[in-house]
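Whiteboard transcription, Tuesday session. T.W. wrote the structure tokens on the left side:
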């Protein structure tokens, strides 16, 4: 009776998935392979035995699959450890102020409302308008001519009757009659850290959660 070579297609399919720490890991697969190989050798036709090339090919296949699974397991472990280290290091950010994309004005203890923005290019005229939740303009800050880059501004909100924390701002910048693009930035304080999809996240004092990669600056 001729015994055909071991079908390792199921093992090859398993190599494309992330290895687990269960009994279906590399050691279990090696044990299963050896049992199959022993059974094949025991029941093969003595007049037509498996040649060395077939045996070598099958052993190479199981070694490849096992190696991939072990590599996947190692990478998964490293990713988990890195995520934990990131979260621990992120705790050093608690209490710090950061700049994140947003148009909300930050309130200072002296009654000043502050914000920042990035200009995509030089502008001959830059004006910051302070807006109510309904979109009404309550104040304007003339910044004059500014170079490309990051700039900050301050507005005295002590005379505002409403809630200064609800105010937002927008930037109008032009150069030679053409609009210059800008990105509004808001200042917030970090109150907590966490992780999401392997990335460090920061919880801000307004309750929002942002990815650390989205932090424009640490103040």
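and on the right, the sequence the group agreed on:
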């Amino acid at each position: 009776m001729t015994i055909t070579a071991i079908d390792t297609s199921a093992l090859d399919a398993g190599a494309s998935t992330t290895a687990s720490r269960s009994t279906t890991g590399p050691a279990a697969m090696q044990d299963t392979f050896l049992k199959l190989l022993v059974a094949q050798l025991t029941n093969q036709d003595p007049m037509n035995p498996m040649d060395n090339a077939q045996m070598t090919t099958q052993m190479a296949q199981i070694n490849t699959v096992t190696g991939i699974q072990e590599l996947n397991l190692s990478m998964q472990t490293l990713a988990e450890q890195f995520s934990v280290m990131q979260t621990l290091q992120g705790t050093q950010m608690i209490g710090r102020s950061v700049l994140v994309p947003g148009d909300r004005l930050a309130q200072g203890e002296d009654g000043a409302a502050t914000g920042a923005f990035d200009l995509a290019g030089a502008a001959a005229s830059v004006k910051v308008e302070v807006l109510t939740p309904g979109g009404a303009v309550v104040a304007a800050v003339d910044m004059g001519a500014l170079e490309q880059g990051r700039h900050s501004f301050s507005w005295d909100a002590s005379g505002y009757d409403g809630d200064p924390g609800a105010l937002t701002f927008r930037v109008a910048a032009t150069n030679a009659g053409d609009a210059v693009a800008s990105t509004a930035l808001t200042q917030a304080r970090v109150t907590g850290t966490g992780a999401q999809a392997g990335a460090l996240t920061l919880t801000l004092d307004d309750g929002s959660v942002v990815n650390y990669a989205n932090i424009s600056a640490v103040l």
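Someone added at the bottom: Confidence is low (pLDDT under 50) at residues 1-11, 13-23.
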